Amino acid sequence: MKVKTPLLLAISALALNANASECGKVTIADMNWSSASLIANIDRFILEHGYECDAELIPGDTMPTGTSMIEKGQPDVAPELWSNSLKDALDKGVAERRLRYAGKALVDGGEEGFWVPAYLVDKYPEMKTIEGVEKHAKLFEHPEDPDKSAFYSCPAGWNCQISAGNLFKAMKLDESGFVIVDPGSAAGLSGSIAKAYERQEPWFGYYWAPTAVLGKYDMVKVDFGSGIDQDEFVNCITQEECESPKTTMYPPSPVHTITTEKFASRSPEAYEYFTKRGFTNADMNQILAWMEDNQADGEEAMFYFLEEYPQIWQQWVPQDVAKKVQDAL
Q1: What domain range includes position 185?
Q2: Where is the signal peptide, in residue numbers (predicted)?
Q3: What pLDDT, in 10s, does the model give residues 219-235?
């Protein structure tokens, strides 16, 4: 009878753990906002149980995470990176074969615009357009001056305050009686929408997606009739010193999943998952609304999502992986 040598035993053990060793240890950036934390927790659970990776969440934020991935090759994955903010550095990292754009975390991109409540559009269908909003300007009563109409902008100090202000100027909304209202904070802005909705009152202003607010309240994005002028938006609308802004719709902000080249090469099957994993804004808005209503963190929301939305996540993975994840739940 042959006795297995330690070497043979080691080889057998390696063969049993082929999947785990292929994937190995994976670090995932857990960013400090709700959608990013949710996605990071989903990725950790699916990699761990579906692909037998040793997956770990580490704290992250846009700029430091992107920089660290380029310079140090860590973490392995940034699940939700708003890539415009460091596009040149990311593109250089890809060109130097340090990084990969794996896929789109938000398939619609981050969405910005001027919005009105859907119940207003039901009553006045022309309010889908900026001309329709201007025609009914008197309905949007200013909270402190009934002779003026309110346009709710971004809080002071945010970049969207600049873009919203420039578009307000480009469309000459002041000529229809509108005045910019600074809500003071993100909570003030979302609170103004909630209050209008509770009372079924007119509301007009800036907002963005994906957010819990647009998951809870049915809002319609106003069409400026201009299409998107990317150059105008980047070079003038977003700049404080934009002298003569022209009207353009907000272009979608690309929101990518970024991985290191090392991880993608080492774990092609796990990497492929990231090329397929992505959320529409409509779905993400709904999940964020649930998170807010239930005061849920990223991990609690991850269990909710995997249990309630199998029709979404099971499309991202092969059947055998989906079964392992389902069993782990």
Answers
A1: 111-237
A2: 1-20
A3: 999 999 999 999 999 89
